[in-house]
Amino acid sequence: MNVLLVYPPNPESFWSFSHVLKFVAKKSAFPPLGLLTVAAMLPSTWNLRLVDINVSPLTDDDVLWADYVFLSGMIVHKASAHTIAQRCAARGRPVVAGGPLFSTGFSEFPEIPHFVVGEAEGVVTQLVSDMQRGALEPVYRAAGFPDLRGTPVPRWDLIDLRHYVSMPVQFSRGCPFECEFCDIIVMNGRLPRTKSPEQVVRELEALRRAGWDEMVFLVDDNFIGHRRHAKELLQALIAWRRRAPTSMQFLTEASINLADSPELVELMVAAGFKQVFVGIESPSSESLLECGKVQNRKRDLGEALSTLQRAGLEVMGGFIVGFDSDPHDIFLRQFDFIQRNGVVTAMVGLLTALPHTALYRRLAGEGRILRETGGNNTDAILNFVPRLDREFLIGGYRDLMQRLYSPKAYHLRVRVFLRRFTPQGPATALSRSDTKAFLKSLWMLGIQDTGRLEYWYLFLSTLLSSPRKLPTAVKLAILGYHFRRVAAAI
Ligand code: SF4
C-alpha cells in the first residue's frame, strides 16, 4: 500500500511566522503533527511519503504513486485543501481527509470521498482494514474521546527536521473551561486527557536522537488542564534533562490560572519552558463575563502576567475585540493594557464565530451569522453582525494592530517585558539558526529596516544593562519585523 500524506500551504498570518523564516533559513514554523502521528498508526509494511507543501511542492508523480492520499488541514487551509482534493480526484486517487478543517466542516468538501471525523486513534484500525479490503466508508467517526496513552511516537523520519523552526509534541487534549467562542472544547472535549510522562519523554528522546536541539512546542489546548498530570510530566522532563543533555526549550499554551500555582511555574521553568501563550482576551470585565472566560475575571490580570514574566516566562497573549459588551474605548483599553504589561507578542483578533461553538449557536439563533469563517483571525473579516458599528469595529481593529506593531510601541513593550523578565532554567546554547538569525538581523533590522533606530537602542541598552537578555531581545526584534508586516497588511 502506498499512502501519500499531504499538508496544505499556510497562508500568511500572525502564526505563519513567514517573515521570520528568512532570518533563520527555515521553510516553515512547524511540521504537521497530526499526519506524522497518523502515519505512526499505519502498518509498518506500508510505504509512506509525506509532502508538506510549505517545504516542498506536491508533484503529479507523488499523487500518481499513491493508492490513497491522506489530507489534513485547519480551517485556514480551506481553499488550498479544495485545490489539492480536486487535483487528486482528477488523477483518480481517493482522498481520506481528517483534522480540524474536516472534523467541523467535512460536508463542504463534496469532491472528497472519505473522512475521518474527530480524533484518529479510535478509527484507524477500522480504516486500515477497509483500505486493505478496498472498501472504504464515506465517514469514520471517532466514538467519544480516545485515551491518549496508546498514541504512538510520531514518524519524525518522514520529514527533514532542519526545515522547521520548532517541533510539535502533544501532551494533552481538551480543556476544562468553557469559553463561548472556543472550538477546541467542541473538538477535544472538556475533560483533559493526557499522555503518560514516559510517552512524552519517549517522543522528546526520539527528537533528540534525530538531532533536534531547538524549540519544542507543546501543542496542548491547555497544558495545565490536568494539573497533577502536568506536574508529573514536568518532574519527568527535569529528570530526563539531567540524563540526556539537550538545549531543547519549550513553549506551550495555558490558562491564566497558571499564575496561581508557583510550584507549577517553577517546575515549568526548571524543565526548560521559556514561553507560554495565554488567552487574556480583554481588559473589559463585562466582555470576559459575556464570553464565559471565568478564569480571567475577578483577578488582577496585570499582576498575573507579571508573576509569570518575573519567573522567567515570556507570555504571549491572545486578545479579542468585537464582543457585544465591548465599550467604545475598547481599542484604547486593549492598547494600554498590552503596552503596560509588556505583552510583546499580542495576537489581537476580531471575534469570530467558529463552526459548532456556543457563540455560533447563539449568534445563529439571533440571526446574526453572515458567513462561515476563513479561519484567519487577523484578516479583519467579520463573520457575524456585531453590536458595535461594523466600520467602527474593523477600522478600530486595524488601527489598534498598526499602533501595537509600530516600531516605537513594539520596542517600548519589549523593554517593559525585559525589565520584568529574568532568564531562568537550564542554560541553553545558542543554536546555529539563532546565530544566523542574529547576524541577519544586524543587516536587515539594523541597517535596512525603518525601525533601525529602535533596534539599535534595544540592542545597545540590553547589551549594556543586562547582556544575558540580549538573545531574547534580538529574537523579539525579529518577531516584531514579522508582526509589523502582518499588521500592515490587515
Ligand atoms: S481556556 Fe482556552 S482552550 Fe480552554 S475553553 Fe477557553 S479558549 Fe478554549
Structure in words:
The structure is a single chain. This protein is α/β, with parallel strands linked by helices. The protein is 43% helix and 13% strand. It contains 19 helices and 14 strands. It has helices spanning 18-24, 33-41, 60-65, 78-90, 100-105, 124-133, 184-188, 197-209, 227-243, 262-271, 285-291, 301-311, 330-340, 358-365, 390-404, 407-420, 432-448, 452-465, 470-488; strands at residues 2-7, 47-52, 68-71, 95-98, 114-117, 139-141, 166-169, 172-173, 193-194, 215-218, 249-253, 273-281, 314-321, 346-350. A 6-stranded parallel beta sheet has the order 2-1-3-4-5-6, with helices on both faces. Strand 13 (314-321), helix 13 (330-340) and strand 14 form a beta-alpha-beta unit. The longest helix has 19 residues, at 470-488. The chain is globular. The mean pLDDT is 95. Bound molecules: iron/sulfur cluster. Iron/sulfur cluster is lined by residues 175, 177-179, 182, 184-185, 221-222, 255, 279.
